[in-house]
Write a structure and sequence with these properties.
Elements: H1 5-15, E1 44-52, E2 58-66, E3 71-78, H2 83-97, E4 102-105, H3 109-112, H4 114-122, E5 126-129, H5 139-153, H6 161-177, H7 189-199, H8 212-220, H9 226-240
Parallel strand pairs: 1-4, 4-5
Antiparallel strand pairs: 1-2, 2-3
């Protein structure tokens, strides 16, 4: 039996049935406050930034930042980057400096895929997803990408993907080894990380207005003993009697 589609549509319009519209399911995540970090590798922040070459071919850059030392641990550039490529980049960083306790990222498909979730679960790495539409919950990597955008991507002309990789890698080296940060007492991220590794303790970062030399002298001073003060007070009391 064949029915003319025009007649069927006319009967449908005359009957006036309602089409059930499906409501779009929105992702909901509870906000997790950023912990107070007191050492490297406690949490890494991840995010992507997009740009294009002269030919119009688009590429992406994966940023991996340690919020405590302000180091840019990885800045991978390619035309496309799935979750398996992200885990390969993280594996390379982990081989050099060890695994982090947690990873903080947005809700992109690269960070919410089954492969990425299984990879974090296998390595016992906590995965922290920020709330949708609230990039301030991953403020460290957002600030880093703002500097990358202003100082490198917007200020450079990329003829092709290979030139983009070369210029972005040079900027990453300058950021880690030559650029001082006020939040690190005007030291570079590499210098601060080396100082932390040499001390082997939880280094307290001075505030931006404090002089670095004065701060170093305060940290090297031995703590004052309360016993000596008490004994001095007892001697004075004996002399008075």
């Amino acid at each position: 039996m064949r029915v003319n589609h025009k007649r069927l549509y006319r009967v449908y319009r005359e009957a006036g049935p309602l089409i059930r519209r499906k409501t779009r399911k929105r992702l909901r995540r509870e906000g997790v406050p950023r912990p107070a970090l007191d050492g490297p590798n406690q949490e890494w922040a991840l995010d992507f930034v997009d740009d294009a070459a002269e030919s119009g071919r688009k590429f992406r850059a994966l940023s991996v930042v340690d919020p405590y030392t302000r180091e840019c641990l990885a800045l991978e550039v390619d035309t496309s980057m799935g979750s398996r490529r992200v885990t390969r980049v993280l594996e390379g960083v982990i081989a050099e400096r060890g695994a982090p306790q947690a990873l903080r990222s947005d809700n992109g498909p690269e960070f919410t895929s089954r492969h990425f979730l299984a990879w974090c679960l296998e390595r016992k790495i906590e995965l922290v997803h920020i709330e949708p539409g609230k990039p301030v919950q991953n403020a460290h990597v957002e600030s880093f990408q703002g500097k990358l955008r202003d100082e490198c991507l917007n200020a450079s002309w990329f003829a092709n993907l290979f030139e983009a990789r070369r210029k972005i890698a040079a900027w990453q080296k300058e950021y880690n080894e030559e650029r001082p940060h006020s939040s690190l007492a005007y030291r570079t991220p590499a210098e601060f990380a080396a100082a932390y590794a040499a001390r082997g303790e939880s280094a307290v970062v001075p505030f931006a207005g404090e002089n670095l030399a004065t701060w170093e002298e305060k940290r090297e001073e031995p703590p004052k003993s309360s016993v000596s003060a008490d004994s001095g007070g007892l001697n004075k009391a004996e002399n008075v009697v």
